[in-house]
Amino acid sequence: MSQLNNKDIVELGSGDCSKISILLNSIPKYNLENISYIPVDVSQSAIQGSSEELSELFPELSINGIVADFINQLDLIPSEKKRIFLFLGSTLGNFTKEEVSKFLTELSFKMNPGDSFLLGIDLVKPLMILHNAYNDSQNITAMFNKNILNVINDIIDSDFNENDFEHKAFFNKEKSRIEMHLIANEDMIITTPHSESEIRIKKGENIHTENSYKFSYDQIKNFEKITGLTIKETYTDANNWFVLVMFEKLNSHSDY
After folding, report:
1. Over the stretch 163-172, which tens digit does the pLDDT of each residue have?
2. Which residue from 6, 17, 117 is spatially nearest to 70, judged by alpha carbons?
3. In the chain, what are the domain boundaries?
């Protein structure tokens, strides 16, 4: 991990410190003294909590959290030192195709020559694997999907009942994405004090709640064309279900 010496590690959408801890644990302590970690997240409490935990685990590490929307506020990230940007997990799959292109292009534009970008990408898998992952026997994904109704209730004081809906998830091959829906079990009328109009939902109607895009290696290779970045390394698991792609900025903006 000597390539991280004297670099800023910038984690976009950092959340808790579970993912970054794996990377930091692989770095010798004497190298941590020359590294700055910059978590970027919209949640101040998440940054504060992870920073406190990381300070105890890695006292040699310099931590400088930034509360920001990394989609629109990349200018807030310091650029004096060489940086490695991290976008781990599979969050990219929650973006539309247009949002992926916009995000990657704008990040590339903000990167300096010599900066790197480590991107986590969920790959297309056999249909049965995808089906079982989003229709698990413990109903964890179903509970997650239905919980959106409770969130809506909290926001607009509505009276959705999650038991009135069934979870449905399937792979849309044409669009290369898992789609999650909630299917109404019966006719219902939803009310909220914030609107004079009732929300009428008929039995069998669905609420499209979420998409999770899966990517192929051809699509990943196309990211080079979109961004002008160069793929330096790829790291995948034994099943080839998930991949970490290391991009590098080789040229200035005017060179492509």
Report:
1. 999 999 999 9
2. 117
3. 2-124+215-255, 127-213
Entry pTM: 0.87
Residues 6+ apart with CB under 8 A from 192: 156, 157, 158, 159, 199
CA dihedral sign of residues 8, 12, 15, 21: negative
* C-alpha distances in Å from residue 106, one per residue of 92, 103, 183: 14, 5, 37
Residues 6+ apart with CB under 8 A from 201: 184, 187, 188, 189, 190
Amino acid at 228: G
Using an 8 Å Cβ cutoff, are 72 and 46 in contact? no
Distances 183 to 179, 180, 210 between C-alpha atoms, Å: 13, 10, 13
Read off the pLDDT of residues 149-194 as tens digits, 9 standing for 90 and up. 999 999 999 999 999 999 999 999 999 999 999 999 999 999 999 9
Which has the closest alpha carbon to 15: 77, 89, 75, 93?
89
The answer to whether 184 and 201 have CB atoms below 8 angstroms apart is yes
The secondary structure of residue 215, as a DSSP letter, is B
> Encoding tokens for residue 42?
């919209």
2-124+215-255: CATH topology is Rossmann fold (3.40.50)
Asked whether the beta carbons of 70 and 40 are under 8 A apart, the reply is yes
